[in-house]
Write a structure and sequence with these properties.
The complex is a heterodimer of chains A (103) and B (498). With 103 residues, chain A is mainly β. Chain A has one helix and nine strands. Chain A starts with a strand and ends in a 13-residue tail after the last strand. Chain A has a single domain, classed as 2Fe-2S iron-sulphur cluster binding domain, sarcosine oxidase, alpha subunit, N-terminal domain (Ubiquitin-like (UB roll), Roll). A five-stranded mixed sheet of chain A has the order 3-2-8-6-7, covered by helices on one side. Chain A has a three-stranded mixed sheet with strand order 5-4-9, with no helix packed on it. The two termini of chain B are 42 Å apart. Chain B has 19 helices and 23 strands. In chain B, strand 14 and strand 15 form a beta hairpin. The chains are: A mainly beta (103), B alpha/beta (498). The structure holds FE2/S2 (inorganic) cluster. FE2/S2 (inorganic) cluster binds next to loops of chain A. Chain A: One of its GO terms (molecular function) is oxidoreductase activity. Chain A: This is (2Fe-2S)-binding protein. Chain A: Keywords: Oxidoreductase. Chain A: Pfam families: Fer2_4.
Chain lengths: 103, 498
């Protein structure tokens, strides 16, 4: 977990697992979560072990979260936006009911 | 005229003269140079803002972090400014997932995702400026939250003015580790120890290159980094192994030096074993790779001006071999001049003279590299983990012991190992395990990494959503192929009028 070394000029609000948190305009979802004290982003696909970002540069895929309903997004590459709904991911992605429809 | 910020795939042109991939020093310099000729240029980059990792978030106003990051960070400002002032299209937040070289009948083509939809774009030339990634450092417990690569901590500092809370242990080798240690302590972070894993035997190999390092621009900076780190941080040298443990996150670091075993408590552990070229896209495009023994990594084969083995694809900067930010900026310009000359649009009679001046400058900036490469050559136990429980493939959670078993059974190469065990088949597509897999095989089979090779990669090199693919514009031929009738009576994207 991280702390800021300078005052955040333009703060914005977002949600993590329904909890309201604050972020710095222009940063990524990953650093916004780390600086808000979020220590675990997801649980691993195979064993369910807790995971958090390793590289912060788009390489490791350990920062995957659900953002505004879209799963498996690399939070270290997505810029945080006001009101974003971010959710932790549990193991492998589930097929949501109603995601696939055949007509 | 400033760059044109592109936010949707649909707004991009079908074809550009030059497409640059990556907005680090090489990519920005390439795009700026190319745009100064009369050509259409597109620069696509994964990050939300220009600068790459080295100049990450340099355009944002955070006075405290900026001051702390020092002069070498500020060096990026004019480069970024010139890029932002140039006449190129700039797609930030774009993911490039495929790349094809030129064929007799067709030009190079890239596949990318921007703003939620995918698109294919043709290019006269493609300049790959994909930069470097950190070499993985698989140690027991490195999947625990609280363990990060050193580069990640530096990115958090640059882009979010954030430093790890609590007790920090830095472990590994290379100049970046000392740079980060200094920056974090300047920022008031609590560093418990820096565990230096440098292989002392390497000193002899490095020493013969000392004269060229002494004459290089890196000597003074390197020395001052070391001195200031030793002055205020507890540096422990000769560290031979490291293991992180904890319940649900990092709590303890165990390590041994020649004399004894140690345990220290830590909340954050930052690992580093140097950087290597990011070659996923290069490799998927079919560019020939070569093993670089001094830098201990694969890199693309390039000629003196950056052309790869695949027609139409040029590679510049750290992605073509580690040379550092200043070198990358010069290499980017060289690549752009190569591209315009190849396309016969560089009509400047002065071009040849400029090019040779740039090449001289590039060679100068590579001075001293060999010394650093050899001195900080990662120790074997951190390249091919000996402890069988150490996870090598983080995505599929494949451990060193399982890999060694499969290699022992006679699995011939990395690609077969992949099919056999699924290592390298997770979302990172082998980015985190490829170097380790090669090292383990080389060690066990008594071969050189060059002989073992690395994963063969295929597009898409980044996961792609079905919805993004579905949003691709459909060519008439594609519609005919799928729907069995001409496009005129089938328009999947047409909105029904009410
Ligand atoms: S933290 Fe590694 S990909 Fe995001």
């Amino acid at each position: 977990m991280f702390r800021r070394i300078e005052a955040v000029a333009d703060e914005i609000g977002f949600f993590f697992d329904g909890r309201p948190l604050r972020a710095m305009q222009g940063e990524t979802v990953a650093t916004a979560l780390l600086a808000s004290g979020v220590g675990v982003f997801r649980s691993s696909v195979v064993s369910g072990a807790p995971r958090a970002p390793l590289c912060l540069m788009g390489v490791c895929f350990d920062c995957l979260v659900e953002i505004d309903g879209v799963e498996n997004r690399q939070s270290c590459l997505v810029e945080i936006r006001e009101g974003m709904d971010v959710r932790s991911q549990n193991r492998a992605r589930q097929l949501k009911q109603g995601t696939i429809s055949c007509r | 005229m400033p760059v044109k910020q592109m936010t949707a795939a649909a707004d991009l042109a079908d074809r550009y003269d030059i497409v640059v991939i990556g907005a680090g020093p090489a990519g920005m310099a390439a795009a700026t140079e190319a745009a100064s000729h009369d050509v259409r240029v597109l620069l696509c980059d994964e990050n939300p803002a220009p600068g790459g990792q080295i100049y990450r978030a340099i355009t944002r106003n955070r006075p405290v972090a900026f001051k702390l990051l020092g002069a070498s960070y500020a060096e990026g400002l004019p480069l970024v400014q010139r890029f932002l002032d140039c006449r190129a299209d700039y797609a930030a937040g774009a993911t490039v997932w495929s790349l094809q070289g030129a064929h007799p009948e067709s030009e190079p083509e890239i596949g990318l995702t921007l703003g939620g939809s995918a698109r294919r774009i043709r290019a006269g030339r493609v300049i790959l400026a994909t930069g470097a990634t950190e070499r993985p450092m698989p140690v027991p417990g490195w999947t625990l939250p609280g363990v990060m690569m050193a580069g990640a901590a530096q990115i958090a500092l640059k882009s979010a003015s954030a430093v790890p809370q609590g007790r920090i242990v830095l472990a590994g080798c290379g100049p970046l580790l000392y740079l980060l240690a200094n920056q974090l302590s300047d920022a008031g972070a609590h560093i418990v120890a820096l565990l230096d894993t440098s292989d002392r035997r390497q000193r002899w190999a490095a020493i013969q290159h000392l004269p060229s390092f002494a004459a290089s621009p890196y000597l003074r900076k390197g020395l001052s980094l070391l001195v200031s780190a030793y002055r205020r941080i507890k540096v422990i040298g000769g560290v031979q192994d490291i293991a992180v443990s904890g319940q649900d996150r990092a709590e303890k670091v165990r390590f041994s030096t020649r004399k004894k075993q140690h345990v220290i408590e830590a909340d954050t552990v930052l690992l580093h074993q140097g950087v290597i070229p990011a070659i996923n896209l290069t490799s998927a495009a079919g560019c020939e790779l070569v093993w670089d023994d001094a830098q201990h990594c694969f890199r693309p084969v390039v000629d003196g001006v950056g052309r790869t083995s695949v027609p139409g694809i040029i590679c510049a900067g750290d992605g073509a071999g580690i040379g550092g930010a200043r070198h990358a900026a010069v290499a980017g310009r060289i690549a752009a001049m190569t591209a315009t000359t190849d396309l016969r649009i560089g009509t400047d009679p002065d071009c040849a003279r400029q090019l040779s001046a740039l090449q001289r400058r590039a060679r100068y900036l590579l001075r001293g590299r060999r010394f650093l490469d050899l001195l900080y050559h990662p120790a074997p136990q951190f390249r091919a983990p000996r402890d069988p429980d150490t996870i090598v493939c983080r995505c599929e959670e494949i451990r060193a012991g399982t890999l060694r078993q499969a290699v022992g059974l006679g699995v011939p190469g990395p690609n077969q190992l992949k099919t056999f065990l699924r290592c390298g088949m997770g979302p990172c597509q082998g980015r985190m395990c490829a170097p380790t897999v090669t090292e383990i095989m080389a060690e066990m089979q008594g071969k050189s990494p060059a002989e073992v090779g690395t994963y063969r990669l295929r597009a898409p090199v980044k996961p792609l959503r079905l919805a993004e693919l579905a949003a691709m514009p459909h060519t008439p031929a594609a519609i005919q192929a799928v729907a069995g009738h001409a496009p005129s009576d089938f328009q999947p994207n047409r909105k029904e009028s009410p």
